[in-house]
Fold this protein.
Amino acid sequence: MERLPASIVRIQATIDYIDDHLDDPLDIQELAAQTEMSFWHFLRVFRATVGETVKDYIRRRRLTRAAYELLETQQNIIDIALGAGFETHEAFTRAFRAQFGTSPREFRAAGKPPKLPRGIPHITTDYLAHMHKGLSTTPEFIDSPARRLVGVKTEFSVTPEAFDLIELGAEAWKTFEPLIGRIPVRANALAGLCSDIVGADETSIQGYVMACVEVTEFAGLPEGVVALMRPPCREARFRHRGAGQAWEYTLQYIFGAWLPDSHFAVADQPAYFTFDVARSPFSEAPEMDYWLALR
């Protein structure tokens, strides 16, 4: 039997840990550290694998346990609410009604068994199809020289659940695409996206995304563009095809499956993607190369 991707194994270990420690304070930063993924990538992989955010999963598991306690014990509702991590009866009632469609008191009186949230990681057929047709699962290793990039940069601060690099890059691309023809000394005919995360916590991810092209020198640039130097590095180049959820599948595979098994570590450099303008990430049939800097 083929071995499960490391990301699936690690997310399952996180789920098992959560279920064994529902009575304890659960710090999402610490959960991420246990998986050896970066914080923001852990949040993305967890959501893609389990189908909900870490925060929502913890809440749903605690509410499900509370529902059984309502049926199987004589505890006061406020005590059950406090045990589920809610500070007030009102907050517990709102969350309980949102999950089960009834109040805790009505639920207890009806004796209705709770509906358990899904807690088992799953690999969808779409994910498997993408691994087969939409991604080069074995990368090409290249010693890349320094890259001089010029383009339009957009800064962002979004919730972890809302982080979508392609969507965040759309604004910068819309502004930059008309300027491409005015960029002199192009190094090649490709365009690209360059992005970096500068900060992340449970509530937000901060960083930038830059729609860009590579040039041979920073000279004669039109007004409104910025310059960025990407140092020389060893890189793994992955070929990606497909739009929408396919992009999430690619990142899930690279960071959750390939990287943990590769014995490489990611270098402290911005993420970098290249593509033909006609096959940009914003087209109906995108094709791009993801250049992962290694150390």
Observations:
- The chain is about 40% helix and 25% strand.
